[in-house]
Amino acid sequence: MAATLRDVAERAQVSMRTVSNVVSGYAHVSERMRRRVLDAIDELDYRPNPVARTLRTGRTGMLALVVPEIDVPYFSELARDVINAAAEVGYRVMIDQTGHDHDRERELLTGGDRTMLFDGILFSPLVTRTELLEMNARTSMPLVLLGEHEFDGRFDHVAIDNVQAAHDATTHLIRLGRTRIAAIGAQPDEQYSTPQQRTAGFEGALADAGLTPLRIEAAAHYRRADGYQAARSLLERDPRPDAIFCYSDLLAMGALRAVFDAGLRVPEDVAIIGVDDIEEGRYSRPSLSTVSLDTPFIARNAVARVVARIEDPDTDAVELVAPHALIARESTVGR
Amino acid sequence: MAATLRDVAERAQVSMRTVSNVVSGYAHVSERMRRRVLDAIDELDYRPNPVARTLRTGRTGMLALVVPEIDVPYFSELARDVINAAAEVGYRVMIDQTGHDHDRERELLTGGDRTMLFDGILFSPLVTRTELLEMNARTSMPLVLLGEHEFDGRFDHVAIDNVQAAHDATTHLIRLGRTRIAAIGAQPDEQYSTPQQRTAGFEGALADAGLTPLRIEAAAHYRRADGYQAARSLLERDPRPDAIFCYSDLLAMGALRAVFDAGLRVPEDVAIIGVDDIEEGRYSRPSLSTVSLDTPFIARNAVARVVARIEDPDTDAVELVAPHALIARESTVGR
DNA sequence: TTGTATGCGTTATCAT
DNA sequence: ATGATAACGCATACAA
């Protein structure tokens, strides 16, 4: 069996208190005691039990990262950055996948299941703000929202300026001289605010230029297959778009392939731009123009905020907006 | 403060024992008692503390999935399947990223840090078998290895037949009539067995056909940038390869782009095939021929094995080999 | 069927 | 600076 603190204490002929002091690096321990304890620890191959420590201290040293789908590149790239940022401040990360399931999200937030196993949640939500409010009322788990823009001061929040990002992408298409501009990614049946904001930015940019949307195609999720289907149906209509703004890079990857399968060229016949700047888009053919979101910034600040709230639950909620930048690649400007 | 079992007991005027029975769904509780307890639980909004439960039972209900990089599509797609498979049998998954760091791997396995927070480990390792042996000697954490082939009966193991997979991919290129066949993905300085096995399959298939490798290019990691660089240096040489076998799909995505940037065509000038069958390769231009690995099979069986070992630590180690299948797409056979 | 009491391994309080 | 001991919240052996 694994050795316990008590075993070490007996072996070293000291009290448990002293062992605990040594283990947790307490300052006032005489050098002689420290050596004796350290030797005993070594001989018994003692390792502190984190569960017992957690029960006592109330801290698990773990954060939960909640995303819809971990195999969507934007989320896996974000997860990578979050894991690294958390490791730097001594936290580990549990990843939860909601699979677009509202009930699953709700359960995670209300602690229905096994919450309390972590000290805080980083939440890239599908749920709406109002849903969040009622949920969070029941539990006081430190929570940081990722990626939404609406803010009412009650949640820590690392946001993306979705409206502006969509506006920038659309304006880029307009400046290329495109006039029949469509979009892919609306979710009319859902209440998620991200698509709504991107639609607002898209329509706003067109209106600013005296244009109207050719069409806004829905996408159930933001996967390649959804982008492919949406682009297909866009290309079958008359008039055909000469540019498509996709609400995510992954949608754009599907759209790219659909345009190709229809026997058309990108960007000559149809220009395509996405949002996220996933690595895949830097190698695709053509490479994908996009609006780059600063995921390291998002990860670093989200972790910093949740840790701050863990350490002081009464700290004021803060909203940060992550920088974004338009990146023009082959899918809009050619080679 | 959060309500405890004791609070509920007081409120319902029963013993803690009875409350515990109700909460854990124990059969022999009278209907009257159950109601009283349930009401009290509701009124106090009581939720069991999983940490305390864990300290008592020794089970956390969590598995760790250890991968080199979560944002490599093969691993994020595997993670998705593992999370789902684990959820079905009541476990949650913590994802750990080693970042190709041997020390980090070692620490995770020896429980240096905060191990014991999970009941078992699913390990997609960089380390070699011999390293594993010494490590696992120190701790008896249930462990399942993913993806390696060598087996010595001491570890549960869901394997891939890397030699055969590489052999199949290479044979496919040979049957297309290619003769100047190169490979990308060797790691001469490392001891990982996966690249070694794929090299063996590659060389074996060529030998079977009376051919010799044109060249085997190294790749430090298996990312797009590594594939791009390796393919570039392959294309600069004379004679130029007319086919390239990449040890992973992601390497192939980089190679695809490099061939394109060199002004050549795939598959006319250079045929390319990978291994993994990531979703990206189904949408790329050209779509990527590959050897498909059955990640749902791997995930399902790995979870089943680790759970079996958690429940009975003395169960015999089992090796399973996941099926694989050659999938010919545009990057070798054209449209 | 239900109650009582102990211990899981640690940290923290109170002494000394 | 160190020792004795009481929690942390739960599950279970043992009793009734």
TrEMBL record, chains A, B:
- SUPFAM superfamilies named in the record: lambda repressor-like DNA-binding domains (SSF47413), Periplasmic binding protein-like I (SSF53822)
- Record Pfam families: LacI (PF00356), Peripla_BP_3 (PF13377)
UniProt entry tagged with the keyword Transcription: yes
Membrane-spanning ranges? none
Alphabetically sorted, this entry's keywords are: DNA-binding, Transcription, Transcription regulation
InterPro entries attached to this UniProt entry: HTH_LacI, LacI/GalR-like_sensor, Lambda_DNA-bd_dom_sf, Peripla_BP_I
What positions does the domain HTH lacI-type occupy?
3-57
This protein is called what?
A: LacI family transcriptional regulator
